[in-house]
Amino acid sequence: MSPVFRFAEPVSPSGGLQAQGLVNLLGAPPMDPITLVLREAAQNAWDARCAGLTPRMLVRVRTLAGDQGIALRRLLLTGTEVTGEPRSLDHLTPRLSEVDEIPVLEICDFGTEGLGGSPDPVRESSRFVRFFFDIGSPHFDGSTGGTYGFGRASLYLASAVRTIVVDTQPAASGSPRRFMACRLGASYVSERTENRGNRHTGRHFWGASGSERSVLPIEGRDAEQFAAALGLPRRSQPSESGTSIIIPWPELDPEAARHFVPDILYHHLWPKLVPVDGAVPMELWVDFGSGEQLLSLSRASPVYEGFAAALATARRRCSPAIGIGPKNRRNPTAHVAACPAGHIRFDEKPGDPEFPDPIDVFRNGLSHVALMRASELVVTYKHVDLGADAPPWVGVVLADAAPDVASAFAAAEPPAHDDWNPAKLKGAAGTIVRMTLKRIREGIQEFLGVKPTSIVAGTDAPSLVDAADYFSEQFISGDGSGAGHPGGGGGGGSSRRPRIVMGPAFVGLDQLNGLTVARYRVHYEGRGEHTLVASASVAIEGGSAAELPSDIEPPEIVGWKDPAGSFREGPCLRPNAVGSYELIVGFKGSYAMTVAVDIGGVVHG
After folding, report:
1. Same domain, 472 and 429
2. pLDDT tens, position by position, 53-71
3. What is the pTM for the complete model shown?
C-alpha cells in the first residue's frame, strides 16, 4: 500500500470557518448523536440512490482488534509529529495509544452514487468535494433542504474523537475506488518552531498525497487494500457502488446497540419498508457481530404497521385519502390518511434510563401523524387532538411532489430536518406550509368520520400572518397562471379584461400609516390609453353589501403604485406603460374581500 499523507488544514489567506464552526452548526440537537447520524445517513443514501437499483443501508457495530485494529491505529497515527497541534487539543492520539481494541459504528450504503467527481475543491463542487471539504453547499439533488453541512457534522459528533474513515466506490463508469479519513479538532497555532504563528482550522485529513495547501484521496488498488485491512465490505459489482463510513469510539454502548439501533431505524425509516409494487423502496440491514439481519415491519412494533397502512392509502393521492392545503390551489399540497389503532399494545418500557426509547412518544395515547415530504422520510411525529371521544389512531401527512410545494417544505425544515417551521418563510411558501399544518386536524376528522369539535378562538383581531394566509387562499393563483380574479368585473368592460388586465393577484398584507392594507398585483397589457377602475367590497355569502353588520367598516381603495414606484391616490388609474402595477386596499377588521379591476373607458387621443 502507498504511504499515507497527513494534512493539517491551514487557515486560508481570507480566513474561513474553523472546525469548531462546523460542529457548532448543530447547536443543541433535539436528539441523541446516534439517532441524528442514522437519520442523516439514510437521507443521504436515499438521495444518492442509483436509477434502477434498490438502495441498501447496512449498520454494523463491531470491534477492530488484531490486524484490523493495528491497521486503523497505523493509519490515524501517521503524521502526528508534523502537525504542530498542541497535545492538549489532540484527543485522538492518546486513545490510539492506550487501547488494543477499537469499538466502531459502521454505516454502509449500496446501490448509490458514491462520492465521485473531481477530488479537487478548486476545480469542481463534486459529491466528493461536498462531503469532505465544502460547508453550506446544497444537498446533492438541490431539493432536500440540506444546505448547512449538518449531516456531515453529525457524523463527527457521533465519535468521541470526532473522526471518520471513509471508503467509497463511485457508480460512474471508470471511477476509481477512494479512501480518506478526516477529523474535526480545534483550531490552533502550530507549536512547530519553523512554523510559529501558522494558524490551522483544526481539520485533519489522511490521504495519498498533497501539498501544504491540499490533500488528495487514496485511490484504486491502494484504496481497496486499505478498506480490506479494516474489514470493510467488498465493492466489486455495479450494484455494490456506494460509501462505507467508520466512526471510531461511537457515543454508543455496544450492548445497548442491539436494541437501540433497530428501534431508531424503525422509528424514522419505516416508510422505506412499505412496499411499492411489491418491493420495498430501501433495504435496511444490521449486524452486531452475529451476521447481517434484514429489518422488516413484521419484526417492529405494531404501531409502525398502523402508520404503514395509512401511508399506503395516502400514496394514492386520491379518495379515500383527504387532500389538504390552501383552498385556492387546484391541487392539494398534501394528503392525509389514518388507521384505527385501538388494538396496538406496547412492550414494557426499557428500564435503563440511558436507553433512548423512540416509542415513548406514543405511550400516553395514539393520536399522531407522521409528517413527511414526498421523499417519504419521517420529518417528525405530530400529536393531533381530535377530542376526548376520538378512538386511538395513527396517520400520515404526505406532502405533494410539486416543485413549489417541495421547495416550501424543504425550506421550512431546520438543519436537523426534524420539523416544519413556517415562521422561516414568507409569501406563498409560508402559506403552503402554514395552511397544510392548519388543516391536518380537519383532514383526519374527515378521514376517520369523527365529528368535528369546535375550537374557541380569542376575540382579538387576527395577526397579519393569519390574515395573509386567508387572503392568499382567496386571491393568489395557485398554478401561477396569472388568471384574473374570478369574482370581479361586470358590465361591458369585463369582456375585454382578459386581453388588457391580468389580476388582481394577492401579494401580501402590510401596515400603511396605521392602516392594515392588502396589496394586489395587476398586470396591464393595453396598447391604447385606458382607465383602470378598482373596487373592493366585503364578500357576503348568499347576501349583499347592504346586509353588512353595523360594526363592519367596508374596505376602500387607497391607491395605486406604478412600475416606477410612484404612488397615485384613489381607485382610478390611467396606466402610462405596459407592466405590473400594485393596487393598495385598506380595511379594518377580519373578513373576505372581493376586489375587481375594470376598464372604465377608452380615451381616444
Report:
1. no
2. 999 999 999 999 999 999 9
3. 0.75
